[in-house]
Amino acid sequence: MIMTYNPKIANDALLIFMGPNPDQQKVESRGNITRISDAETGFTTGINIFHISDLIDLGDQRGMVTLTPDQLAKVNQAIMAAGFQDEVTNSESGLVIGEVQEMADHPDSDHLHVTQTAVGDGRVLQIVSGSPNMRTGIKVVVATPGAMMPSGNLIWDGQLRGVPSAGMIVSGRELQLPEAPNRPGALVLPDDFGSVGEPFDFKKAQNLYRDGQIDLNY
After folding, report:
1. H-state helical runs in 105-176
2. What radius of gyration, in Å, describes the C-alpha atoms of the chain?
């Protein structure tokens, strides 16, 4: 679940993403609250709360936002008062340190790889990657399903050429790190950067390329 706020783009609305946009969607608006759901399954994929400043003060937060417990309570009360049964919770960014445990060639591609990548808490995700520097044993940054990238793009489960892929192994360029090369290639983290499953630390990563800590020979 990702919550975003950007008044320049979406006026004074809190946008809550709970899943990818369905092919057939149902939109219900009650007062300042709009619920988007899958027309076939009824699963809620998003909630938009308009004139959010009348309900809570988000201050200078922009992009992905985290609500205080009091703000969460007010938002959930407003959703229930509108007659919807959905509950909003805070989520981490979804960008975590992972480790590639296994890798196999994609059955229908000469450049894609099918990886089994550990992301912490005993979870291993199957992720299809086209990174030319992909190999087993490396630490990488994984955008788990539901993660928001610095560009604002949301990452969900999907398929690449018929093979399921749960999230994405990302590059320094996609993370918008200083001096990251403008070419494909996973960000292979130094072994001591952090432990598998830890949230990716953008502040700590700012000098990875500047200090020559990343191998670009691939």
Report:
1. none
2. 19
Q: How many CA atoms does the CB half-sphere of 149 hold within 13 Å?
A: 19
Q: What's the distance, CA 166 to chain centroid? A: 11
Sequence-distant (≥ 6) Cβ neighbours of residue 115 within 8 angstroms: 100, 101, 102, 103, 104, 126, 127, 128, 129, 134, 169
In tens, the pLDDT along 179-206 reads 999 999 999 999 999 999 999 999 999 9
Q: Are 178 and 209 within 8 A, CB to CB?
A: yes
- What ranges in 82-194 are assigned the alpha helix state H? none
Q: With 90 as the cut, is the pLDDT of residue 10 above it?
A: no
Tell me which residue of 46, 31, 32 sits closest to 86, measured CA to CA. 46
Give the pTM.
0.75
8-state DSSP, 22: P
Q: What's the rounded Cα separation, in Å, for the pair 142 and 122?
A: 15
Compute CA distances 93 → 77, 142, 144, 184, whole Å.
24, 11, 9, 23
Q: Which amino acid, one-letter code, is at 115?
A: T
Question: Which amino acid is it at 104?
Answer: A
In the chain, which ranges are continuous DSSP H helix?
Answer: 7-10, 69-81, 202-205
Q: Does residue 95 sit in helix, strand or coil?
A: strand
